[in-house]
Amino acid sequence: MRLLVNKIFLALSVLSALIGLTFLGWILITLFIKGLSSFHFSLFLNDLIEGGLRNLIIGQFILAGLASIIGIPLGMAAGIYLQEYGRGRYASLIRDLSDIMMSAPSIVIGAFVYAVVVIPTGGTSGFAGAISLAIMMLPVVINTTDNMLSLVPRELREAGISLGASKYRVIIDIIIKAAKVGIMTGILLAFARIIGETAPLLFTSETSNYFSLDLTESFPSLTVSIYDLANEPEESSRDLAWAASFILTALVLVINLAGRFITRNKH
Amino acid sequence: MEKIFQKLSLSSASLVFIILIGIFITLFNSSKLAIDEYGFDFITNPDWNKEVTIDTPLSDVTTEDIIIDEDDMIMDEDEVMFDEDNENTKTVFGGLVPIVGTLLSTLIALVFALPIAMGIAVFLAEIAPKNISNIVGIAIELLAAIPSIIFGMWGLYYFAPIVADIVGGYQVSLLTAGLVLGVMILPFMAAITRDSMNTTPSVLKESAYALGATKFEVIKDIIFPYSKVGIIGSIILALGRALGETMAVAFLIGSIFALPSAINDPTISIPVAMANNFGEASGLGESALFYLALILFVISFAVISVAKFYFLKKVK
Question: Which of A6, A105, A193 lies nearest to residue B271, judging by beta carbons?
C-alpha cells in the first residue's frame, strides 16, 4: 500500500513536469508554424505601413537599448552602494523596496510614467517609453549586482586596499571585474525581459507605423504593434502579428540562453 | 573622487525609494478627482462610464451591460461635453467589476497552477536525475521568459477554443483568462518552490530513507514541513505577479464591464481596463482609471511584502 501510494505520487509528479513541458512545446510549435508560414525576409526591409516589421524591430531595440543606458549604470551603482557602502537599516530598506519594485505591476509603472512624463510633455514619446522600461529594469540590475558582488571574496578587497588603492578604485578595478560574468548574465536576462514588455509601453511610447528616430514623438514598438495587429479583424494583420511574435520570442529566448551559456562556461 | 563615487552610488540607491514613493504620490494625486467624487463607494459600485440622472439614487438605476470599446468611449465623452447644459445627468465610474475580475482571474490561475507547480518542483528537486532535472529546469525557466503578449495570442487562438469546447460558454471569459494566467505563473511558482525544497538538509532526508521511508513519505513528512514557509511565500509571490499581469489577460478576459454570473462569462480586470481605456480617457474617467491603478498598486505592494518579508525572509 505504501509503495502504491508512493508510485502514484511519483507518477503525478512526472505528469506535472510533462504538463509544463507540453505548454512550452505547444506555444513554441504554434509560434513556429504560424510564425514561419507568414515569415518572409522582406519583413526586415519594409516598415509596418508597407506590411513589414523593420521600423518596429529597430524601434523596440532603441527603446530597450535606451532603457539599458539609463537603467544599467544606475542599477549597478545602487547595487554597489548596497554591497560596498551601505550598512544598516537604510541599505536593507532599499534592498527590500527594490525587491518589491521587481514584482510591481508593469501597467502601473506605465501609468506613473504617463502622469509624470507624457502629460507634462504633451504626448506619447520614445523617451517616455524608454523611461518606463528603465524603471522595470532598475531593480533587476540592482538585485544582480548586489548578489554577484556579495560572492566576491573579502580577501580581494583587502588586497586592493592594502596596496594603497582608494575604495572606489578597488570597486571599479577589482570587485566589478571579479563579478563581471555574473553581472553580465543578469543584465542580459534583464534586457531579455524588458525587450518583450508591452504593458509599460502602451500609453508611453505607443507605436508608430513609420520608421522613426525621433524620440520626442510616438515611437514604433514591436510589442505594442503585435497587440494592435492581433486584434485587427483581417487575417493578414494577424498573420503579421504571428510573424512578429515569432521574431520577438526567438530574440528573447536566444538572449536568455546566451546569458545562461556565459555563466555555465565560466563557472 | 572617492566622495563623488560614494555619493553617486548612494543617490542611485535612493532612486528606488524615490520612484516607489513617487508612484504612490502620483497615483494618489491623479486619482484625487475620482476619490473626492466617489470615496470608498467606488470599490462597491458596479457601473462604469454610465450616465445616470442625478436625482435618481444609484441603486435604482437599471443595470445594463455597457460594452466599452475605444470608439464608444470617445463618443460617450463627447456627448457628456455637449450635454453639459443638461444638468440632471452625469457619468459615473465604479470600480467593482475590474476589482472582482482581477481577484477572480487570479484565484482561478492559482487553483490551476498550484498542484502542477508543486508536482514540477518535486520532480525537479527530488525525482529526476541531475542532468534531466537541469534540462527540464531550463525548459521551465524558458517558459517563464516568453513575453506575456505571446501567452495572450496563443491563449486566444489555440488554448481558449479547446477550453470552451470542453466547458462550454465563451472563448473569452474569466475561466480562459485565469487558466492562461495560471500557465504563465506556473514556471515562476515551480522555480521558487524547487529552490525552497532544495534548502532541506540532506542529512534529514537520508535519515528518513535509512528508516525505510518511501520517497512520498520523505517529501510529505520531511521536505514539505521543512520548506513549508518558503513554499507559501512563493505561492503568494506568484499571486502578486498574477494580480498585475496585463497582456495575457487582455486577450482573453473579454474586456466587458459586467460582473460575471458564471465562470465562463467575459468580464474585465484592473490592468486590462487601464490598457484598453487609458489613452482615450480624460477628466473623471482618467482619474477613475488612476484610482484603479492605485488600488492595484496597494494590493500588490501588500501581497508582495507579505510574501517577501514574512515568508521568504525566514527561509534565508
Answer: A105
Q: Is A103's CB within 8 Å of B300's CB?
A: yes
* Cβ pair A20:B140 closer than 8 A: yes
Say yes or no: A23 contacts chain B, CB-CB below 8 A.
Answer: yes
Domain count along chain A: 1
ipTM of this complex prediction, to 2 decimal places? 0.92
A70 touches chain B (CB under 8 A): no
From chain A, pick out residues whose CB is under 8 angstroms from the CB of B273: none
Q: In chain B, which residues have their Cβ closer than 8 Å to the Cβ of A87?
A: none
Are the beta carbons of A81 and B9 separated by less than 8 Å? yes
B153:A84 CB<8 A: no
Q: Residue A102: which domain range?
A: 38-266
Q: Which candidate, B309, B10, B23, places its Cα nearest to that of A135? A: B23
Q: Is residue B246 predicted with pLDDT exceeding 90?
A: yes
pLDDT category at B316 given cuts 50, 70, 90 is low
Cell of B128: 529526476
**Pairwise CA distance, residues A124 & B279, whole Å:** 10
Q: Which amino acid, A102?
A: M
- CATH number of residue A50's parent domain: 1.10.3720.10
pLDDT tier for residue B59 given thresholds of 50, 70 and 90 = very low
pLDDT in tens, A28-46: 999 999 999 988 889 999 9
Q: Which residues of A touch B187 (CB under 8 A)?
A: 20
**Nearest-angstrom CA–CA distance, B189 and B178:** 15
d(CA A61, CA A66): 8
Has residue A158 been placed in a domain?
Answer: yes
**Per-residue model confidence (pLDDT) at position A243:** 95
Nearest to B275 among A109, A142, A199 (CB): A199
What residue ranges do the domains of chain B occupy? Answer: 2-96, 97-275+295-315
Could you tell me which residues come within 8 angstroms of residue A187 by beta carbon, excluding any fewer than 6 positions away?
A68, A72, A141, A144
What are the Cα distances from residue B99, in Å, to A114, B105, B219?
Answer: 22, 10, 38
Mean pLDDT across B53-72: 49
- Global confidence as pTM: 0.89
Residue A57 placed within a domain: yes
Mean pLDDT of chain B: 86
A6 with B289: Cβ contact below 8 A:
no
What CATH code would you report for B97-275+295-315? Answer: 1.10.3720.10
Backbone angles phi, psi at A161, to 5 degrees: -60, -40
pLDDT at B54: 67
Per-residue pLDDT of A106-139, as tens digits, reads: 999 999 999 999 999 988 999 999 999 999 999 9
Q: What is the pLDDT of residue A267?
A: 54
